[in-house]
Specification:
Length: 493
């Protein structure tokens, strides 16, 4: 045998596709666990049959994780969503009770028609309401209309999850396996069908994929649709503005903003004209609500330091603005321009940490951003452990809330709030460390991507850096492996 011919051992330890990062070879936290599913990637891991490429596999992971979540809802789907069982069995969902409480059972179309006596106007953004109305249209009704409404919504949400997972996998071309974090996260499995958040999550993931592929206008259009389903996607425009300013790519940012405005207005304006009060219900409700479950503000009230309602909005908004200013300083002062996903996670996390409510399913907003920002399973699972503790605690607390039933005491529930907040801060601190010390960034330090700038950053990847340190600028100017981004075409569809 020639000395240049690899042995079987050599082939088995060489990645089958040198352009794809294998977490089992890059992430020590899961390297040993791969023995459960047959060990590290071998020479036949990517056969000519493309079905076994990463994207279909992570989609299968998504379906599997979603089905586990549905199984966890069986105590409620079998026995009904009655108190305290829906809490003690951890199978609560907003979908079932809102079927009748928001008029879907009576055929009321939200925003346009006024609710019937005993019902309330739908307190969700327009695109989420249309999603719910579509599920109601597809509902076969009958004797189990509420159960069917839940399952139709679940099927549609499953599609949203698959879209979110596949879009996350495709955002950084050489790191598709990171999307397994989204598919298999405890937060995804437990929270996917609590509410309709996966619609906005899928659209946001799609917008980030389009941005990574250098379609800024299309990215803006999809981001605008995401903002028509939930408020939080609009927060991504802040980091994008700062990054495009630092990279001298403001024209691309303008296309994103223009596309987002067009999409948001196209969805919202018709309902604003037809029934402004119905359309505005979400925004009025969000403004008027007080401190609610899971928030730092409820924790403060529980320990005797409650904030007066008349100043709560101002204080929460002020602290959020302070955190955003801190993120802006980090963005502009970092020796190397941060990656878009890193800042996206930080700004959405800042919003959730200061928000007046933290529902368990809000973790879904952060999971795809976390997989793109810091794809390391150890830190990801530490964060998810904190979120899981809160998931269990909120339902056990509600089992006895306002009743004589035995539930989790308020003191322990307050501890769970701090654990939830602390776990998010922990993950955010790890991302900040990556920004300040890029050699710790898993994306910028793995052996296949070490020469890339921001592989999911679209026009930002390889773009000039106005505030780069002299050492960084010298290193980047000497790197001739890839043409600069400003010499590559930008699609303006």
């Amino acid at each position: 045998m020639s000395s240049t011919t690899p042995t079987d051992t050599d082939r088995s330890t060489t990645p089958p596709d040198p352009t794809v990062v294998a977490p089992s070879q890059e992430d020590l936290a899961i390297a040993g666990s791969t023995e459960i599913i047959g060990g590290d990637l071998g020479r036949h891991a990517y056969s000519s049959w493309r079905f076994w490429s990463p994207l279909p596999i992570v989609a299968i992971f998504a379906v599997g994780g979603f089905m586990l979540g549905l199984i966890s809802k069986l105590p409620c789907t079998v026995n009904g969503w009655s108190d305290p069982g829906r809490y003690t069995h951890l199978c609560y969902t907003d979908i079932a009770p809102l079927y009748s409480l928001r008029g879907f059972a009576d055929g009321v179309f939200p925003y346009i028609q006024n609710p019937l006596p005993g019902q309330e106007q739908l307190e969700y953004p327009v695109l989420t309401g249309l999603f719910m109305s579509l599920a109601n249209f597809l509902n076969p009704r009958g004797d189990n209309a509420t159960l069917w409404f839940f399952y139709v919504n679940a099927a549609m949400l499953a599609v949203c999850l698959i879209v979110a997972v596949v879009a996350t996998a495709a955002t950084v071309k050489r790191r598709p396996w990171d999307a397994a974090m989204v598919a298999l996260a405890p937060g995804t499995i437990l929270c996917a069908t609590i509410n309709w958040d996966l619609l906005a999550v899928a659209l946001t993931a799609g917008a980030m994929l389009l941005w990574a592929r250098r379609y800024p206008t299309w990215a803006g259009l999809v981001l605008g649709l995401a903002a028509a389903a939930k408020f939080y996607p609009l927060l991504l425009l802040g980091p994008l503005l700062l990054l495009c300013w630092r990279a001298a790519k403001m024209s691309a940012f303008a296309r994103v903003v223009g596309g987002a405005a067009i999409a948001w207005l196209a969805v919202n304006v018709p309902f604003m004209v037809i029934n402004f009060d119905g359309w505005a219900r979400f925004y009025i409700f969000s403004s008027e609500r007080g401190e609610d479950f899971g928030s730092i503000w409820l924790f403060l009230r529980n320990i005797g330091f409650g904030v007066p309602p008349e100043v709560l909005n101002m204080l929460a908004t002020g602290i959020l603005l302070i955190l955003c200013v801190g993120i802006a300083v980090l963005t502009l002062k970092a020796a190397r321009r941060p990656r878009f996903a890193q800042l996206a996670f930080l700004v959405v996390a800042a919003f959730l940490l200061t928000n007046k409510v933290y529902s368990p399913q809000f973790v879904l907003w952060l999971i795809p951003l976390a997989a793109l920002a810091r794809p390391r399973w150890r830190d990801f699972l530490i964060w998810q452990a904190g979120q899981t503790i809160y998931f269990v605690s909120i339902w056990l607390y509600l089992a006895g809330y306002g009743t004589d039933a035995i539930g989790l005491p308020v003191g322990w529930y307050s501890v769970a709030i701090i654990i939830q907040i602390g776990s998010t801060i922990f993950f955010g601190v790890m991302i900040i460390r990556d920004v300040l010390r890029p050699e710790h960034d898993p994306v910028r330090s793995d052996r296949f991507l070490e020469d890339d700038d921001d592989p999911g950053g679209g026009v930002l990847d390889g773009a000039p850096d106005r505030w780069a340190s002299s050492s960084t600028a010298t290193r980047e100017s000497s790197d001739q492996q890839m043409p600069p981004a400003d010499q590559q075409p930008v699609h303006s569809h």
